[in-house]
Structures are given as structure tokens and as C-alpha cells.
């Protein structure tokens, strides 16, 4: 059975928070990074990202879904959001994933919804 853990890491403007799903099988696991849309968050509408992450983890992928700066559980206020900060947060998330044990960062996919794509 896959597992999910609340995580946080330091972004360029503040602490970013989200969830890391890991498959039941021992790693190294391929990785998928989920990026939410404008006004969205790591759960997304109708829990789309939660369901998607669970399906991917059950299929053997590690999945990170997190809130951009100024969204959801991450630091900042929504009016502080910029396209540059969103891109910087995504790059920081990739760097964070690369530092995690048991992940195969050479096999990574990125899925963005709406403006997150």
C-alpha cells in the first residue's frame, strides 16, 4: 500500500507545504510533480490531485503535490503571487525532490493544471 506524508521545504520567498506520496515498492521510484492552477492548491478542485496522486503511487510512482507561495498551506498571501515566483517554486520543488532518498530523479514527469501547466 502506498504512503503519504506531509512535507515542507524552503522556497525562495517562504516555506512551501504539500504532500509526498510514495509507492509501496522499494525505490528508486520514478517521480511525478503536480503543479496546481491559478487560485488552486495541492488538493485541487474536487480533490483531483489527491485522487491522481494515489493512482500514480499505486502504479509505482512517487508524487509531490504542493502549494505555491501565497496559496493553500504555504507561506505568503495570494496577492504576493507572481509568475516568476511560481516558476521559482517549481524549480525549488524539483531540487527538493532530487535530494530525497529512494527517488529516481532521472525519471521525472511534471503535470500542471491550468496556469500550473
State the CATH class. Answer: Alpha Beta
CATH architectural type: 3-Layer(aba) Sandwich
Work out the count of structural domains: 1
What's the total number of strands?
5
Structural class of the secondary elements?
Answer: alpha/beta
Q: Would you mind describing this structure in some detail?
A:
This protein is of the alpha/beta class. It has one domain (about 5-115): Rossmann fold (3-Layer(aba) Sandwich), CATH 3.40.50.1820. It contains two helices and five strands, in the order βββαβαβ. The chain has helices spanning about 50-60, 85-100; strands at about 5-10, 15-20, 30-35, 60-65, 105-110. The longest helix has 16 residues, at about 85-100.
Produce a short descriptive summary.
The chain has 117 residues and is an alpha/beta fold.
What tags apply to this protein structure?
117 residues, alpha/beta, globular
Task: Give the SSE layout.
Blueprint: E1 3-10, E2 15-22, E3 29-35, H1 48-58, E4 62-66, H2 83-98, E5 103-112
Parallel strand pairs: 3-4, 3-5
Antiparallel strand pairs: 1-2, 2-4
Amino acid at each position: 500500500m502506498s504512503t503519504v506524508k506531509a512535507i515542507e521545504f524552503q522556497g525562495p520567498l517562504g516555506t512551501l507545504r504539500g504532500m509526498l506520496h510514495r509507492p509501496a515498492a522499494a525505490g528508486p521510484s520514478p517521480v511525478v510533480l503536480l503543479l496546481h492552477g491559478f487560485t488552486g492548491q495541492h488538493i485541487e478542485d474536487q480533490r483531483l490531485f489527491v485522487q491522481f496522486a494515489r493512482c500514480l503511487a499505486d502504479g509505482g510512482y512517487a508524487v509531490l503535490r504542493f502549494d505555491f507561495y501565497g496559496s493553500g498551506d504555504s507561506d505568503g498571501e495570494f496577492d504576493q503571487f507572481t509568475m516568476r515566483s511560481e516558476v521559482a517554486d517549481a524549480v525549488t520543488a524539483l531540487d527538493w525532490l532530487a535530494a530525497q532518498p529512494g527517488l529516481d530523479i532521472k525519471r521525472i514527469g511534471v503535470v500542471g493544471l491550468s496556469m500550473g501547466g
